[in-house]
Design a protein that fits this description.
alpha/beta, 2 domains, two-stranded parallel ribbon, elongated, disordered N terminus
Length: 318
C-alpha cells in the first residue's frame, strides 16, 4: 500500500523525489497544441469520473512489454576517409514481455548493443565477447534519439514474434506512449509521468476527482499522430491531486465504442498490479510486472564496468 504523509494544508507526492514527480509542477507543465475531440464518449459538459460497470470482465491474461537502455560509453568514431573523428555513444538496450495471468512470467527477452554516431561507413565494434552494431545518426541527434528508436523497434518486433509463435492475441500493454506502435493489434500505451497538460481546466479537474479504479471519459488526441486516450487512477492513499494517475492510449483505428470498452477493461485490469512503495519508489504507477521486468532487463544488459573496460581495450587495440 502506498504511504503518504500529511500536514495541514498540503500533501506529499508518493514518488521518490529522486525520480522527480509523477506530475510536473504546474509552472513546468508544457501546454499542448494537440487537437482534441472531448465528446467521444459523453458530451463535454457531462464529463465526470467513470466507474466500469459490474459486467466489465477483467482480462484473464495480458501481456506487458517494456524496454531499458544504457549508455556504456561516450566514444569518438574515426572517419574511414580520414576526416575528423565524430562523437557517438556505445549503448546496450533490451526489451522483454511479461505474461500476466494467475502470476507474472517473463516469456520473451532480447538484448542488443549498438554504436550510434554520424560517422559514415563505420564497421561494427567488437569489444571482447560482445559486438556493438554500427548505426548512423543524422541531424542534431547525439545518438539518444536513434537509440530510443531502436529500442522501440525491438519492443514491437518482440511482441509481433511472440504473438506469431503462440497464436495468441492477448491485450498488450506497452510501457510509454503508443507512438510508433499503433499498428500493434489489441495494444494500449501506458504513460506513468505527465509533462504536458493536454486537457482544458474543466476536464483536467475531472482527473483530480478520480477515485482508485475510476477513469475519465475517452477523448481523441491529434498531434503528429492520432490516438484515443483516457486517464485512470490506481490504488493510492495519497491526497496529492494526481497521485496514482496514469494516461492510457489506444489506436485511432478503433471505433469510439470499442475504445470505451477497451478503456473499461484496462481500468479493471491494472489496479491489482499497482506498485507498492516499499518495493518501488515510483509506486503505484510503476506496475509490479513492469518493475520486475525492468530489473530482469537491466541484469541482462550485463556489467557496465566490464563492458566499459572491454570498450576501452578495444579502442586501444584498434
Amino acid at each position: 500500500m502506498t504511504t503518504t504523509y500529511h500536514a495541514p494544508g498540503f500533501s506529499v507526492d508518493p514518488w521518490d523525489p529522486g525520480y522527480g514527480a509523477s506530475l510536473a509542477f504546474e509552472a513546468e507543465m508544457e501546454g499542448s497544441s494537440a487537437a482534441l475531440t472531448l465528446d467521444v464518449e459523453i458530451p463535454v459538459l457531462q464529463w465526470r469520473p467513470i466507474t466500469p460497470g459490474a459486467t466489465t470482465k477483467r482480462p484473464e491474461t495480458l501481456l506487458i512489454a517494456d524496454g531499458v537502455r544504457r549508455i556504456d560509453a561516450r566514444v569518438w568514431v574515426d572517419d574511414p576517409e580520414g576526416g575528423m573523428p565524430a562523437p557517438g555513444i556505445a549503448a546496450s538496450y533490451a526489451a522483454g514481455i511479461v505474461r500476466c495471468g494467475e502470476g507474472a512470467e517473463p516469456v520473451a527477452v532480447e538484448v542488443k548493443r549498438g554504436v550510434f554516431s554520424p560517422a559514415k561507413g563505420v564497421a561494427d565494434l567488437v569489444a571482447g565477447p560482445v559486438t556493438y552494431t554500427s548505426h548512423e545518426v543524422t541531424g542534431d541527434d547525439d545518438g539518444s534519439l536513434a537509440l530510443q528508436q531502436k529500442l522501440t523497434e525491438l519492443e514491437v518486433d518482440l511482441a509481433l514474434r511472440y504473438r506469431a509463435q503462440t497464436g495468441h492475441d492477448e491485450l498488450l500493454v506497452v510501457d510509454g506512449p503508443l507512438r510508433g506502435r499503433t499498428h500493434l493489434p489489441n495494444a494500449v500505451g501506458y504513460v506513468k509521468t505527465h509533462h504536458t497538460s493536454y486537457l482544458p481546466p474543466a476536464q483536467s479537474a475531472v482527473v483530480s476527482d478520480l477515485k482508485p479504479g475510476q477513469r475519465t471519459p475517452v477523448f481523441f488526441m491529434g498531434t503528429n499522430w492520432s490516438r484515443y486516450a483516457w486517464y485512470l487512477r490506481l490504488p493510492t492513499i495519497s491526497t496529492a491531486p494526481w497521485a496514482g494517475i496514469a494516461r492510457c492510449e489506444a489506436g485511432a483505428d478503433l471505433s469510439a465504442e470499442d475504445a470505451a470498452e477497451l478503456a473499461d477493461r484496462v481500468t479493471v485490469a491494472l489496479p491489482p498490479m499497482a506498485g507498492v512503495d516499499y518495493k518501488d519508489p515510483r509506486a503505484p504507477q510503476n506496475l509490479v510486472p513492469i518493475g520486475g521486468l525492468e530489473k530482469l532487463l537491466r541484469h541482462r544488459l550485463g556489467d557496465a564496468r566490464l563492458l566499459y573496460r572491454a570498450l576501452r581495450t578495444a579502442a586501444v587495440a584498434g
